[in-house]
Write a structure and sequence with these properties.
2 domains; elongated; binds zinc ion
């Protein structure tokens, strides 16, 4: 989805209606981009902002992609684009104590009181993964949505629209960019299947083995922050090189964008880690209950198990118990607990010998 045309060929109805709305001067001021795909949540706000502020739109209303504002947006240098994203540390957007506290809603909102310095005069506010705003922050932002400042465009993104206050959802035009195919990127998490295989089938009653699996999983979880940094760094590498001679204010803009993207990328990786772990035990439970292999929704996750000859098995009720433990771990890790303790407790509860014979 590198430009408007490729977006529109993937989402023809939505693309056309946005374009026509812009053409007729009816483009809304607040949009909520809903997609389970983090890459789309990351990319689409730029395209939507280009649609809104392009200085030289095509005859059909589509953004040109080359004019001054389109280029500034593309390169992260549009002076009045303000980005709010969860910080990777707290995984939350809070309201903040004062306007000076960075990465808070108060700080973000204060940007819209200043006059615009962008060509065309539009201010753009992007809140990435806005479901990570706590309730205070959501309530405060609601007031802004109810009486938006002039010439402002707000673009919110979420993969979990149900976590938003209904009043926030109803104040935004919802742009649903759904992506039904859920396949896992097992290359990034290539160490997980072996650990989960060992935990599921070889650690029964062997708490040392359980402990080793826990240590492996904790290692992966602990490396997600630097993985997120590396991904975002690579994404911006070329533009950073091109920006080498820029003044420091411009570099700051880019660094802010990269910070925000790193927070979102970290959350995405963490979600994927938990999802793979959960999916592993869900697939094992399905097979243990007799589901034919060709009907497994995510065979890519359990490939190492499916390809083992002879394939080890566990009784269905034991598989169901493990799945319950995995569900519990996902729930616990979504609150602010110590990751390490939670994963260790989980691995040991899976490894414990419950007396069920395989
Ligand atoms: Zn343009």
């Amino acid at each position: 989805m590198h430009d408007w045309q490729s977006f529109e060929s993937a989402y023809p109805l939505l693309g056309r209606s946005l374009r026509m709305a812009k053409h007729a001067g009816r483009l809304g001021h607040s949009h909520l981009v809903v997609s389970s795909n983090a890459a789309i949540r990351n990319r689409f706000p730029t395209l939507l902002a280009q649609l809104a502020v392009c200085l030289d739109p095509l005859p059909d209303g589509a953004p040109c992609g080359h004019c001054e504002t389109c280029s500034l947006l593309e390169n992260g240098l549009y002076p009045d684009l303000f980005l709010l994203a969860p910080t990777s540390k707290s995984r939350q957007i809070t309201i903040g104590l004062s306007e000076d506290e960075p990465d808070t809603l108060r700080n973000f909102e204060s940007m819209f009181h200043l006059s615009s310095s962008a060509p065309g005069g539009w201010k753009i506010g992007v809140i990435q993964d806005c479901d990570t705003m706590n309730e205070n922050a959501q309530n405060a932002f609601l007031k802004t949505l109810e009486e938006p400042p002039r010439n402002c465009l707000f673009i919110l993104t979420t993969g979990h629209p149900a976590s938003l206050l209904p009043t926030i959802r109803s104040r935004c035009q919802i742009l649903s960019l759904t992506d039904n195919v859920c396949k896992y990127d097992m290359e990034t998490f290539s160490a997980m299947p072996d650990l989960l295989m060992k935990l599921t089938f070889a650690s029964k009653g062997d708490l040392v083995a359980g402990e080793e699996c826990a240590a492996g999983l904790i290692d992966i979880l602990g490396s997600l922050g630097s993985m997120a940094e590396a991904t975002v760094q690579a994404r911006w590498d070329e533009r950073l090189k091109a920006a080498e001679n820029l003044e420091s204010a411009a570099m700051k803009l880019i660094e802010k964008r990269m910070d925000g993207e790193t927070g979102c990328e970290y959350l995405r990786l963490r979600e994927e880690f938990l999802s793979i772990l959960h999916t592993w035990f869900a697939q094992v439970a399905l097979v243990s209950e007799g589901t034919p292999l060709e009907l497994l929704p995510n065979p890519e996750v359990v490939r190492v198990w499916l390809d083992t000859d002879p394939r080890p098995s566990i009784p269905a009720d034991e598989a169901a118990r493990m799945l319950g433990e995995a569900e519990n771990l996902v729930r616990v890790l979504n609150t602010n607990v110590n990751d390490e303790l939670a994963v260790r407790a989980f691995a040991l509860s899976v490894a414990i010998d419950t007396g069920v014979q395989g």
